[in-house]
């Protein structure tokens, strides 16, 4: 048994090193730090004296166009009779989007995809560094549910989890999705996409004290585990990290490379998720034993990672970085601007003067900013024209046009014109000084083609994350909870549900157009247009909700004070809510009225 475990850990250490070489060869990970420096404007180590951070401006203008300002998912059942569960699940998932801070993590993953070529989001449940269903603690009280009947107390929660968990985006008894830096992610070298990968690995840094106290590693052998990193360089900058074993060499002796003193003791851990046997393995490259080897509970629809790749490589998993494509143009632009600086210095005014003609104390007056100066000289004034000669400077005009050409090439590579970067481009390249509305719409539609492709990739990733979160809810939210759901005719209902009751096959739709910015005036116009179109088709109670929506678009108008808010019936079961929806649908088809009579809203402390 010991020999089998030794061979197993040797195999996985070798796989990690193969994954690192695969990342370095096809992901160009050695250049990621340089491209990140280009983006953040750290030119000190790159030898650039007069840079133009065009990469920063391009990415900053592109990211707001591709991420979702108000991420929402629409859930529809795949079979008849699933409408009630779909409505409850939709409300629940859209609440989870806010609780998980999914918008922030997806924006960070989008930046990783632009700079490094690949963005990674890791999915999990309950705890950040590993999930154990035997130690599952559900939330004591949440806005989307009542207290679990698990008997756990706040004191137990603090003792078991709070001291070992630091991320505010990870809550006990809740799904989570966190951005992972591509440098900390490895994948099976034979994989061309994350869906066909045999395994994925995530590198984390934890203090030795947390590792020793964590109950996740009780089955493993922690004897002899030593810290290998210093907090002084805990910045994910591999060339600066203090480590006894470099990724590049497995034969390096830890005893000879260990730092003399460590300010804070950290351990590098590799968490490996294997697809075939559904295992989760945790190990340290310098430790001879596995720290964890358990069944992987988090593999829903594949490994618990989602990859965001805007430019897919035809052969490998690792995407093509936009920074890599822009890198040659960025350096050429910097070189051109540096030449402009040098020629500008050469083009300054120069005077060739006969030696001794002008006293030293009078020479500074030639460069004075005063409008009038007296200059005294010992020579004959009439001969000054022969003794002083002004030198003409030279400034190539081609440098300015060359810079504009490079910038245009960079915009073309990303599909970003001047207008899409927030600038007016009227009259450029010999065009008319003013464009018609039709021409402006054509330009806008064509420019959105490539942006729409990136936005669609983000929408697919968002929907995949929501699907995985729904699977976690089905499996582990087995205690009764309540949710406030909109029913027919604008009525609001409190619905009693649990995860197993909601379980089923659903379609998860995300509208990419949600990323487009919209002004207050546009919202008002859309609301008024919607009212004018739908007013003739809606029932009285539905009209009231539509009127409330229109009033909310105008500042200073209290819609609830003008219109009586719809009353909410008491808590009903999921099946009863389904009967309400079905009955309302039948009455609307037959021309009937309301399917329910509102009852007073009960006191729901701790619910929504």
Question: How is the topology of this model organized?
Answer:
Blueprint: H1 2-26, H2 32-40, H3 54-66, E1 74-77, H4 83-99, H5 102-116, E2 119-125, H6 154-162, E3 175-180, E4 185-187, E5 199-207, H7 208-213, E6 229-230, H8 254-257, E7 265-274, E8 279-283, E9 292-295, E10 305-308, H9 322-346, E11 350-353, H10 384-387, E12 388-391, H11 398-414, H12 437-476, E13 481-486, E14 492-497, H13 499-502, E15 506-509, H14 520-534, H15 540-551, H16 559-562, E16 572-573, H17 574-589
Parallel strand pairs: 14-16
Antiparallel strand pairs: 1-15, 2-3, 2-10, 4-5, 5-7, 6-7, 7-8, 8-9, 11-12, 13-14
Largest β sheet strand count, sense and barrel closure? 6 strands, antiparallel
Beta-strand percent range: 5-15%
Mass-distribution shape: flat
Helical run tally: 17
Which spans of ≥5 residues are poorly predicted at pLDDT below 50? 139-158, 236-255, 420-424, 427-431, 588-608
Helical content band: 25-40%
Mean of residue pLDDT values = 75
What is the C-alpha radius of gyration, as a whole number of Å?
32 Å
Structural class determined from secondary elements: alpha+beta
CA distance, first residue to last residue = 53 Å
Strand tally: 16
């Amino acid at each position: 048994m010991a020999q089998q475990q030794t061979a197993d850990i040797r195999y996985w250490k070798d796989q990690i090193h193969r994954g690192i070489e695969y990342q370095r060869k096809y992901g160009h990970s050695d250049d990621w730090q340089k491209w990140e420096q280009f983006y953040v404007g750290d030119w000190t180590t790159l030898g650039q004296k007069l840079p133009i951070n065009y990469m920063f401006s391009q990415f900053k203008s592109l990211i707001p166009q591709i991420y979702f300002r108000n991420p929402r998912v629409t859930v529809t059942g795949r079979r008849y009779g699933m409408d009630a569960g779909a409505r409850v699940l939709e409300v629940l998932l859209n609440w989870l989007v806010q609780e998980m801070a999914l918008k922030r993590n997806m924006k960070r993953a989008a930046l990783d995809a632009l700079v490094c070529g690949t963005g990674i989001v890791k999915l999990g449940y309950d705890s950040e560094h590993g999930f154990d269903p035997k130690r599952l603690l559900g939330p004591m009280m949440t806005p989307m549910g009542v207290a679990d009947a698990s008997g756990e107390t706040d004191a137990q929660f603090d003792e078991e989890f709070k001291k070992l968990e630091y991320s505010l985006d990870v809550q006990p008894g809740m799904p989570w999705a966190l951005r992972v830096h591509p440098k900390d992610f490895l994948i099976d070298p034979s994989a061309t996409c994350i869906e066909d990968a045999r395994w994925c690995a995530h590198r984390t840094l934890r203090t030795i004290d947390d590792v020793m106290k964590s109950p996740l590693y009780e089955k493993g052998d922690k004897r002899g585990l030593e810290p290998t990193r210093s907090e002084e360089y805990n910045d994910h900058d591999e060339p600066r990290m203090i480590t006894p074993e470099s990724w590049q060499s497995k034969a390096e002796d830890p005893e000879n490379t260990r730092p003399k003193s460590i300010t804070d003791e950290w351990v590098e851990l590799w968490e490996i998720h294997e697809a075939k046997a559904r295992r989760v393995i945790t190990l340290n490259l310098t430790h001879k034993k596995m720290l964890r080897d358990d069944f992987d509970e988090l593999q829903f629809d594949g490994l618990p990672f989602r990859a965001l790749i805007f430019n897919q490589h035809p052969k490998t998993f690792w995407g093509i970085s936009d920074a890599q494509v822009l890198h040659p143009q960025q350096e050429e632009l910097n070189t051109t601007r540096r030449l402009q600086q040098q020629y500008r210095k050469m083009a300054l005014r120069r005077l060739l003067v006969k030696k001794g003609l002008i006293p030293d104390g009078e020479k500074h007056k030639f460069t004075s900013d005063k409008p009038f100066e007296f200059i005294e000289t010992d020579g004959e004034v009439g001969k000054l024209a022969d003794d002083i000669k002004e030198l003409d400077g030279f400034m190539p005009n081609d440098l300015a046009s060359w810079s504009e050409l490079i910038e245009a090439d960079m915009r073309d590579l990303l599909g970003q014109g001047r207008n899409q970067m927030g600038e007016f481009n009227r009259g450029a390249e010999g065009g008319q000084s003013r464009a018609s509305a039709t021409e402006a719409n054509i330009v806008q539609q064509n420019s959105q083609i490539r942006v729409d492709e990136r936005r669609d990739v983000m929408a697919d990733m968002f929907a995949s994350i929501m699907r995985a979160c729904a699977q976690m809810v089905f499996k582990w939210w087995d205690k009764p909870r309540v949710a406030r759901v909109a029913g027919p005719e604008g009525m609001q209902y409190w619905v009693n549900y649990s995860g197993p009751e909601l379980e089923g096959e659903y379609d998860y739709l995300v509208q990419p157009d949600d990323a487009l910015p919209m002004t207050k005036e546009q919202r008002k116009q859309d609301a008024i247009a919607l009212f004018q179109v739908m007013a003739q088709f809606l029932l009285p109670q539905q009209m009231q909700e539509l009127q409330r929506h229109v009033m909310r678009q105008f500042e200073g108008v209290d819609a609830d004070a003008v219109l009586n808010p719809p009353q909410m019936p008491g808590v009903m079961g999921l099946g009863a809510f389904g009967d309400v929806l079905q009955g309302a649908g039948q009455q609307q088809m037959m021309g009937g009225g309301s399917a329910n009579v509102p009852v007073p809203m009960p006191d729901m402390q701790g619910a929504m």
